[in-house]
Amino acid sequence: DLNNISYDKKQDWANYPLGVIKTLQNHGYDIDQGFELMFWGDIPNGAGLSSSASIELATAVAMNKVFNLYIPQVELVKFCQEAENKFVGMNCGIMDQFAIGMGKEGCAILLDCNTLNYEYAPLDLKGVSIVIMNTNKRRELADSKYNERRGECERALKALQTKLPIKSLGDLSIDEFEKNKDLITNPTERKRAKHAVYENQRTLQAVERLKAGDLKTFGKLMNESHISLRDDYEVTGKELDTLAEAAWQQPGVLGARMTGAGFGGCAIALVKDEDVKHFIDNVGKIYHDKTGLKADFYIASVGGPARQEEKMY
Fold it and tell me: How many angstroms separate the CA atoms of 81 and 93, rounded?
């Protein structure tokens, strides 16, 4: 019933498209007739690969087209984040929705999540494959500790704001953080803030390395990112750590780290094309030996934004 859309836990993933439709209605857009909506996809559910944000953007693009709403793409992105925050109850940022809604083939995106200013950085992967490694340890995003980590960072920010005129942890340089970190008296919250500050600086460095075509250093930054997510943000766990650490040992690997919100899900590696088969065989064996689980591997590419396909066959 379009006049009575509400969250229902029993609906599971259907709450994501329902949330998008409700959000559009809340903003005054007229969804004035019923419809049947079918989804098909090959993104594993609950694996940390943004399946929820993908469904949200697919729904938003479809509604925009079918009902002639003429909403700019970046506004659709914002509405999808709002749907997940307010309808589903997941206090996520906008990164997943933005990457899906504003992606560009062959490029990474540098996004300031506070201002939504962004720029594209070339992702020249000639001779290198993106390999996604699925732990097959299922994680439910809304039930994970994501909101807890968000709260810890917000409390750390408030402690720093007692002295510093900053709006986000990302405003700090590493040197500024180190000089003022004792303002955060809770040691756990200090670790969370350290990750956020250092990760932000790694991201800025990573963009410069991509612009320079330096995938080797970019890969090292990926490794450093995982270590910080493991030790300071503490969102990895045995399965993700096993995959990343096994990947680091393999020939032809430029870098590897977990992806998504953590607590299971997937990791990602950059692997030279000629080493991909041995990489999958070796990492898969190590992972099974250490965890008893079977990992799945996918070769990914960097595509464009959520959009209508002119031909569906």
Answer: 7
- C-alpha 188/C-alpha 196 separation (Å) is 13
pLDDT tens digit sequence for 172-219: 999 999 999 999 999 999 999 999 999 999 999 999 999 999 999 999
CATH of domain 9-102: 3.30.230.10
Q: pLDDT, tens digit, for every residue of 101-129?
A: 999 999 999 999 889 999 999 999 999 99
Class level of CATH domain 120-300: alpha beta
The span from the CA of 160 to the CA of 193, in Å, is 10
By annotation, the residues acting in catalysis are 96
Distance (Å, whole) CA 96 – CA 306: 12
Collect contacts of 1-8 with beta carbons under 8 A, ≥24 apart: 2/31, 2/33, 2/34, 7/87, 7/88, 7/89
